[in-house]
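Memo to structure team: turn this sequence into structure tokens by end of day. - J.P.
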Amino acid sequence: MTMSGISKIASAFNRASRSQRGATMAFALVFLLVATVTVSVILSAAVSAVSQERIDQEREQGMLALQSAGKVVCTCLERTSCDIVTVETTEDGETVTETSVENVVGPLGDYLKEGLDRLIRNSPRTGRIEFTVNVSGDDAPDVLKQSQVKVGLDVGTYSETFNDELHRFYTVDAELSLLDSGQKMYIYTETEPNVIPDIVPNGTQETVPVNNWSTAKLSTKKGKQS
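Reply from structure team:
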């Protein structure tokens, strides 16, 4: 075989070798790309699952904090009462009627009195009565951190006629919101009906008790529940 033939054979071998190495490199790059994408998808799914689990846990803890605070508020309402006293007097031939909130007792007495005073002044929309309740792990064992719950009370009234007598109900509509999130729960309660007298006799006083908030219920919906 001549030198020219040997050179051609060597050249062909080199081309084949380079072609094989190129194909191997291409396959390696494709495999690396697929592996990278797969790992990225797996990591993304894992991070998403962990984040969702953390969000669910925080939301569950928030609901537990609201429920704990709600039970406290319901218990405090049940222990709170007062009297609405109306007195009619005659001065210089003119009849004067005065109504006041008296004999206030219970842990939420100050808030109840403020709300009823607004009703008596016919200005129930002057603003919500607000306070905070601190909830810790001692109050609710499943709550891992201390939480602050803002409570807003709206005191109202409405009347209905039964057996030709006008009865008045006093209501408390409360909104509980977690300060570090948008989670909320609600409380609604109303008193037993009180008969509204047609006339307050001159020189005497009429006392209407505002008590018995045993219907206080915690709910995820606002207002009276059927």
